[in-house]
Amino acid sequence: MRVFKDALSLTPNGGIGSKAAMESMTVRPFASPEAAAAELRRIYREQIARRMDVLHTYTGVTNSEFLQRSGGNVAEYAAGRDYGTKQKWFRIDESGTRVFLLPEGAEL
C-alpha cells in the first residue's frame, strides 16, 4: 500500500507534523498497478461466477464496483486494467465492453 498526501501542511518551523497534515494523508490500497489488477481480477471472477451461463463480464459493471464498492479511483482502475492485460490475467474485447478472464488470471 502506498500513502499519498492530498495537501501538505507545514508547521511554523518548516516541518511537517501538524494534525491537519496527518489528517490529509489518504491510504490508497490500489495505488500499485499490481494491487489494482488483483482487485479487478477478484471482481471479474466474482461477476463471471454469478453468471454461470457466460464466460465474460462487462466493463461497466466491474468499473462501477471497483470505483464505488472497492474505493478505487479511475487512474487506479486504468493502471490495474493495463497491468492485468499485460500479465495475461484477462482480456478486454475490441469493443471495450466485455472482459474475459484468461486461464492465468483464473488460477491466481
Tell me the domain tally: 2
- What share of residues is helical? 40-55%
Q: What is the residue-mean pLDDT, rounded to a whole number?
A: 81
| Number of helical regions | 5
| Sheet with most strands | 3 strands, antiparallel
- Biggest sheet: strand arrangement: 3-5-4
Overall outline: globular
CATH class of the largest domain: Mainly Alpha
Distance between the termini: 20 Å
CATH architectural group of the largest domain: Orthogonal Bundle
- Whole-number radius of gyration? 18 Å
Strand fraction: 15-25%
| CATH T-level fold name of the largest domain | Arc Repressor Mutant, subunit A
Global structural class: alpha+beta
* Total count of strands: 5
Encode the helix/strand succession as letters. Answer: EHEHEHHEEH
Features:
globular, Arc Repressor Mutant, subunit A, 5 strands, 2 domains, 108 residues, two-stranded antiparallel sheet, 17% strand, alpha+beta
Layout of helices and strands:
Elements: E1 2-5, H1 19-23, E2 25-28, H2 33-50, E3 56-58, H3 59-69, H4 74-86, E4 90-92, E5 98-101, H5 103-107
Antiparallel strand pairs: 1-2, 3-5, 4-5
Helix pairs in contact: 2-4
